[in-house]
């Protein structure tokens, strides 16, 4: 137990402020520990990454077929691949910041604090429901009868 000198003893206001600061820090850390991938999904960065990889593979295929026909050196193909690799993180950052909408390219709106996380009870319920839904779908295909608990 901490002993405070009478003059240094914190008041209720100071303790409340310290608790609010601690809560704010924990929410910030929780966002990066638990909510990061939810935020990546909300901002559709996965979609940008998949589209970039597919487009880059097409460009590499096209370049590997066309460059020898044009008598370009192998270093030109290497340059194209390096530029595509450098552009990948840039595309992810732009995918994080901007959203393509029918109205044009817009900045992605920020989520309200606390809306990106699911509670443990909600997560447990979802996983339990997914488990039973999966059993209902897979059991007829495998020839087994699923019994609910």
Question: How would you describe this structure to a colleague?
Answer:
This protein has 149 residues and is mainly alpha-helical. It has two domains: 25-107, no CATH class; 118-149. Helices cover 68% and strands 5% of the residues. It has a two-stranded antiparallel ribbon. The longest helix is centred in the middle third of the chain and has 25 residues, at 45-69.
Task: Characterize this entry briefly.
This protein is mostly helical. It has helices spanning 12-33, 36-42, 45-69, 74-97, 120-142, and strands at 98-101, 104-107.
Features:
149 residues, mainly alpha, 2 domains, two-stranded antiparallel sheet, 5 helices, 68% helix
Topology of this protein?
Elements: H1 12-33, H2 36-42, H3 45-69, H4 74-97, E1 98-101, E2 104-107, H5 120-142
Helix pairs in contact: 3-4
Could you spell the SSE succession in H and E letters? HHHHEEH
Could you give the count of β-strands?
2
Tell me the overall shape. Answer: elongated
If strands are numbered along the chain, what order do they take across the biggest sheet? 1-2
Low-confidence stretches: 131-146
How many whole angstroms does the radius of gyration measure?
Answer: 26 Å
Ends apart, CA distance between termini: 49 Å
The secondary-structure class comes to mainly alpha
Query: How many structurally independent domains?
Result: 2
Mean pLDDT across every amino acid position: 75
Helix content: 55-70%
Strand content: 5-15%
The number of helical runs is: 5
- Oligomer, anyone? single chain
Described by strand count, sense and barrel closure, the largest sheet is: 2 strands, antiparallel
């Amino acid at each position: 137990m901490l002993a405070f000198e009478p003059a240094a003893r914190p008041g209720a206001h100071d303790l409340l402020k310290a608790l609010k600061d601690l809560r704010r820090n924990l929410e910030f850390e929780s966002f990066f520990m638990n909510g990061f991938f939810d935020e990546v999904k909300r901002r559709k960065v996965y979609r940008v990454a998949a589209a970039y990889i597919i487009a880059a593979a097409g460009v590499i295929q096209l370049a590997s077929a066309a460059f020898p026909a044009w008598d370009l050196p192998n270093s030109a193909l290497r340059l194209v691949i390096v530029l595509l690799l450098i552009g990948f993180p840039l595309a992810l950052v732009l995918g994080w910041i901007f959203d393509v909408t029918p109205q044009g390219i817009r900045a992605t709106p920020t989520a309200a604090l606390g809306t990106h996380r699911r509670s443990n009870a909600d997560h447990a319920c979802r996983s339990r429901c997914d488990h039973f839904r999966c059993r209902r779908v897979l059991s007829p295909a495998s020839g087994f009868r699923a019994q609910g608990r």
